Amino acid sequence: MSKTIKILTIQDISCYGQCSITVALPIISAFGIETAVLPSAVLSTHTAGFTDYTFRDLTEDLPDIQKHWEKEGIYFDAIYTGYIGSKKQLDYIKDIIDSRLKPDGMVFVDPAMADYGQFYYGFDQEFADKMGELCKKGDYILPNTTEACYLLHKEWKPDFSKEEMLEMADELSKFTKKHVILKGDNHKEDKLGMVVFDKDDTSNTHIVYNDKVDHLSHGTGDVFASAFVGATMKGKTPKQSAKVAGEFTKTAIEKTIDDPDHKYGVKFEQVIPELYELLDSI
Ligand code: PXL
After folding, report:
1. Mean pLDDT, the chain, as a whole number?
2. What is the pLDDT at residue 142?
3. Ligand 1, atom 1: closest residue by C-alpha
4. Ligand 1 pocket, residue 50 CB under 6 Å
5. What is the CA radius of gyration of the chain?
6. Atom of ligand 1 at shortest distance to CA of 19?
7. What is the Å distance from ligand 1's center to 112 Cα?
8. In a domain, 1, yes or no
9. What is the model's pTM?
10. In the chain, how many domains are there?
11. I need a labelling partner for 169 at 20 to 30 A (CA). Which of 72, 97, 149, 183 fits?
12. Sorting pLDDT into bands at 50, 70 and 90, what band is 50?
């Protein structure tokens, strides 16, 4: 009998739009990992590029769900958080981590709240500062440069130099227990990079590059984080996981790029059959 790895992901259900739980559940499951979900909110669509979407905040369901899991003795090998529906939820989630994570369990925090220099609708600096507190429970944090700038109270720009990216990853180390994966190194014309930073061993810092695909896509952060979590839980190093997740995301964008009706997400489902080959190749 092979060992079961059990993950909890906490983020919203956007019923339509290929992000958050509808991305994390299939991708992490495809790694052979049992994936439980705790929805932070239910929306009819995500908030980027759609208008008049519904939003059901599930903040006050979280403590009852936690209590039930405590009664049932349910624990997780890892907890991965993404888009969170309210500031109060950030406190509840810290409690859930303390209560439901196995002693040697891992925490992945994707501070999904901003991109391209702007907060997603409904988020502000106060939320970002509270998100910073949740990040401090993370063994891995996975911000893009916009989220990093809000966490650090820094001015964002579309292209940071390699040195600035490395410096920013170092500054972000106060928001993680161990690893920073800083996405969005844009300074090379044909490559997209990310800094993989280990705060206990700064000589173990890497910039991992993937081919750049010139296309503005939604939901790619969630596709990347889900593949990163899956690869890490299957034993890959942070550098290897960043490469797997970067290639997986890049291929999903390539499968989407020629479809003008598909701007709201990426066709990651079509890459799932290639996942094991990709995992073995890295
Ligand atoms: O992919 C990030 C994300 C997740 N969930 C919701 C969003 C977004 C980005 O806009 O709106 C509801």
Report:
1. 95
2. 98
3. 219
4. no
5. 17
6. 1
7. 7
8. no
9. 0.97
10. 1
11. 97
12. very high
Atom 8 of ligand 1, residue of closest alpha carbon: 46
The amino acid occupying position 19 is C
Distance CA 22, CA 57 (A): 17
| High-pLDDT (> 90) share of the chain, % | 88
Angle between helices 162-172 and 145-152 (to 10 degrees): 50
Q: Kindly list the strands in the beta sheet with 191-198, ordered across the sheet, starting from the edge strand earlier in the chain.
A: 55-57, 34-45, 6-16, 76-81, 101-109, 140-141, 179-185, 191-198, 206-211
255 phi/psi in degrees, rounded to 5: -75, -15
pLDDT digits (tens, 9 = 90+) for 201-228: 988 899 999 988 877 889 999 999 999 9
Q: Rounded to an integer, what distance in angstroms lies between the CA atom of residue 105 and that of residue 98?
A: 10
On whether residue 231 sits in a domain, the answer given is yes
For a ligand 1 pocket test, name from 43, 47, 50, 54 the mutation site with the most ligand atoms within 8 angstroms of its C-beta: 47
Average pLDDT (182-202) is: 90
Residue nearest to atom 7 of ligand 1 (CA): 46
- Domain hosting 216: range is 6-281
Residue 22 lies in a domain: yes
* Stretch (H or E) spanning 104: strand 101-109
